[in-house]
Amino acid sequence: MAIKHAIDLALGRNIGAGGIPAEAIEAGTTLAARGLARLREEAASGALPLLNMPAATGDLDEIRTHAARIREGASDIVFLGTGGSSLGAQTLAQLKDYAVPGVGRLAEGPRVHFMDNLDPISFGRLLERLPLETSRFVAISKSGGTGETLMQTMAVLAALDAAGLPAGERVTGLSEPRPAGGKNALRDLLEPTGAPFLEHHTGIGGRYSVLTNVGLLPAAVMGLDIAAIRAGAADSLQPVLDGAAPGESMIGEGAILAIATALEEKPIAVMMAYADRLERFTRWYVQLWAESLGKDGKGSTPVAAIGPVDQHSQLQLYLGGPDDKVFTVITTGVAGLGPRIDGALAERGGQPGFAGKTIGDLVAAQGRATADTLAKNKRPVRTIHVDTLDERAMGHLLMHFMLETILAGYGIGVNPFDQPAVEEGKILAKQYLAEG
Ligand SMILES: O=P(O)(O)OC[C@H]1O[C@](O)(CO)[C@@H](O)[C@@H]1O
């Protein structure tokens, strides 16, 4: 098994007072079994298209063809889109060092930019400094109506026009088809330029879209094996399709813990990953969990952390602060990796224990120590160990957390697929903009 999942250190019977009590686990198991059965039915009926994505292969060649077209002659590839139209792709891109401290700037191939946060200084400077002639832009929005993405796209079109460069050769769109009799602003903007368009799946929402062309087009642009990402997702889903009991699979165990923790009313869910290449994954998880479950006065607040660096900022609170959190600590198979420390230098630096050890040895020890220390301090912790962080493992993790989130929603009785509250602020912002 390339991924090991354990909830032992979250259980009251193993860690004492702060752990999740047996009664909550029992109730969680019953609700998880119900949710798993519902998912199995939804997979069979096609009612939840996300569940059919792992096995889908028919669209992969089209995605690869568009990716090759976008890469051709490009010095820079700019992805426009926000929230679920960006975070999954960024997560996958980190496998190729995107936004990884130090090496991200040194990565080979076209430079890739995900402009998910709207900031006038950043976007202005980007357009000033990009070599527009050799830059390509991909505008992604399920609805086609998100203000941030539309404004960025308009700014790009104006910049290309001012430079005398045909937009249709440099810009690609990805959005839902125009609804019958309805509007899609992104299509209205781009179609007159002749820009090619990919179709956003109409039955899969943005934060669940990483396995569709929304995540896989940028992944293919970066040279990742997109079939392996889907195969990893299938690894996660298979026990659901097989009808495995909740306690017999990673997804079943995850669902039990998520539901039991909600019943215990732990208001904060911390995801701490010991890998630079999982930093965007923790941000993707935050959106998924928060937008899916935070409704009807329910839900828990997701917190993203990476290790070891956040040991030096958040760990004190986690160990000594309020007992209101459940932790997920993710480690990877880094033992033995990275520079090996010279014995004489270790002596000279007063760290004889470092001699002959690698940086990976220290990171592996730290991840393990953090999980064990949390448990010793009676803080419930679930551990996930990924041997090799590659496309298949990432597909597995992504599908796991999408399924776990859906099962948590089913278990606590909220609809994990909508986000009604977000609309209010969007409408008000447009009103303020119009008022000037
Ligand atoms: O893909 P779209 O329609 O541009 O939406 C972007 C994001 O905005 C939201 O609709 C609300 O914040 C998210 O759910 C979504 O991922």
From TrEMBL:
Pfam families: PGI (PF00342). GO terms for cellular component: cytosol. It comes from the Bacteria. Gene3D superfamilies: Glucose-6-phosphate isomerase like protein, domain 1. GO terms for molecular function: carbohydrate derivative binding; glucose-6-phosphate isomerase activity; monosaccharide binding. InterPro entries: G6P_Isomerase, SIS_dom_sf, SIS_PGI_1, SIS_PGI_2. Keywords: Gluconeogenesis, Glycolysis, Isomerase. Its EC number is 5.3.1.9. It catalyses: alpha-D-glucose 6-phosphate = beta-D-fructose 6-phosphate. SUPFAM superfamilies: SIS domain (SSF53697). It is an enzyme of class 5 (isomerase). Pathway: Carbohydrate degradation; glycolysis; D-glyceraldehyde 3-phosphate and glycerone phosphate from D-glucose: step 2/4. GO terms for biological process: gluconeogenesis; glucose 6-phosphate metabolic process; glycolytic process. Belongs to the GPI family. This is Glucose-6-phosphate isomerase.
